[in-house]
Fold this sequence. Notes:
The structure holds two protein chains of two kinds.
Chain A: H1 2-16, H2 40-54, H3 65-68, H4 71-81
Chain B: H1 4-13, E1 19-23, E2 26-29, H2 30-46, E3 54-58, H3 63-74, E4 78-81, H4 88-98, E5 102-105, H5 107-115, E6 125-128, E7 153-159, E8 167-172, H6 173-187, E9 194-197, H7 206-215, E10 219-222, H8 231-240, E11 245-248, H9 250-258, E12 272-275, H10 282-291, E13 296-301, E14 310-313, E15 325-329, E16 334-338, E17 351-356, E18 363-364, H11 368-372, E19 375-376, E20 379-391, E21 397-402, E22 406-409, E23 412-415, H12 416-424, E24 429-437, E25 442-449, H13 457-465, E26 476-480, H14 493-510
Parallel strand pairs in B: 1-10, 3-4, 3-5, 5-6, 9-10, 9-11, 11-12, 12-13, 25-26
Antiparallel strand pairs in B: 1-2, 7-8, 8-18, 13-14, 14-15, 15-21, 16-17, 17-20, 19-20, 20-21, 22-23, 24-25
Amino acid sequence: xxxxxxxxxxxxxxxxxxxxxxxxxxxxxxxxxxxxxxxxxxxxxxxxxxxxxxxxxxxxxxxxxxxxxxxxxxxxxxxxxxxxxxxxx
Amino acid sequence: xxxxxxxxxxxxxxxxxxxxxxxxxxxxxxxxxxxxxxxxxxxxxxxxxxxxxxxxxxxxxxxxxxxxxxxxxxxxxxxxxxxxxxxxxxxxxxxxxxxxxxxxxxxxxxxxxxxxxxxxxxxxxxxxxxxxxxxxxxxxxxxxxxxxxxxxxxxxxxxxxxxxxxxxxxxxxxxxxxxxxxxxxxxxxxxxxxxxxxxxxxxxxxxxxxxxxxxxxxxxxxxxxxxxxxxxxxxxxxxxxxxxxxxxxxxxxxxxxxxxxxxxxxxxxxxxxxxxxxxxxxxxxxxxxxxxxxxxxxxxxxxxxxxxxxxxxxxxxxxxxxxxxxxxxxxxxxxxxxxxxxxxxxxxxxxxxxxxxxxxxxxxxxxxxxxxxxxxxxxxxxxxxxxxxxxxxxxxxxxxxxxxxxxxxxxxxxxxxxxxxxxxxxxxxxxxxxxxxxxxxxxxxxxxxxxxxxxxxxxxxxxxxxxxxxxxxxxxxxxxxxxxxxxxxxxxxxxxxxxxxxxxxxxxxxx
Lengths: 89, 511
């Protein structure tokens, strides 16, 4: 299931991050923060995209570097909030 | 007072096990730090670094990076912290201009630099500094370093220039020591203070946290580079380390209040919150004061070229109307408000904020003509900040705005002209105008295409991200066939800006 979430995360990143375009390779291990692919505004936009896509709410205190380090970490964050439910889409 | 280093030598001669630097779970005692500095200095000297030589640092922010910085100073070299995330082409150009005797990289940064087609000038020796490889328990030889005078260059801080070429601000040991002495005296910092360093090493705000904090044996907590994106993480660091001094830009403080839960944190030791770099919107400032009422607040003012030249302690109920108050000149400097010819204007009248004093930079690296332009033709004593303001009835200086098109984007200084110059250098671009909108939050590039040349947003973005720092790559592009002009034939910025606002509105409707 996290595999599906990962592709949604990738889609959301492509939508909000201005430094990412179709030619930018995004894999599970792409270091989003280390590579500074997101700025602070885009980070919030990304959270909003994911909240909208899954009907979840990510609390502010979970906006932490370890949850945004890479696509795998983001997918796990979303997955935790789905409480193990399969994504409704 | 020639150099802050003299204090370090005295301080660390008897340095013990008290923590002085903490970062990502790692803590260095005074003795460990000073050992590391001497170890690095020894390596610099082995490789022939002599007084006045440049040492560039493209290093991830960590205690080792700070040790290399101090080691460069100890050797009498000029330390140049670089934005390691800058495009390879930009770093290559910077290194060619700086001709460093030693170019320090960490391994991932160097790999990216090489992958991006970057190359070192012939003079630079490369050192990869992932770890210091200092054998545990090794005896590090202590040495005094060359004798330094106030006029000797200590650091070069890079900022973007109006032509698109970056310029290096040369700061002397005297410049830095004057600022540091002033900060110590003004805010009464002591060895018991704990500073949270949020700014990157290449940003002048770090001169307070790192140089002044370590100088007095206080503890400096380094936020990691990515932490600035996560206001809750910054608040957590402040709480965990019982931070007593916080110095950053208003944008970050606002985020810490709004999204980091600053008010809910236990920060019993927080004494001073200092901010600089942009205007703090008054309603947001009132929220900050309400969030941490135990602290005192001060606004510091001055471009990187002069460091802080004016300051004011913020009142509990900050004024909500009128031009922002930047206070009075620091004790070390004299400020004059001048007209275009360098003559003082009447009180209450707006003019350029000019300064004479020992914190004014030595000049721009390798750019004597550019340096000369910062002074009036017949007055070489007054440095022109490029900021406009006036003196109010009480004698405080009120900030009005910038003279040129240098502006602030999310708290960072950008030269709109530099971004336009880069865009104009691209194929198919006939005209380019950059505007900052959304209250300083986003950068928009208006582009006139050459007839018959198809331009795409993705293509322009990719091309610009190769030559501009990431925070200067526009987030929005608007294409024009017909460039709006004023009667004098110049690009009509007011119309471009209005156009952008209506476009934003349209997008809001459809999404």
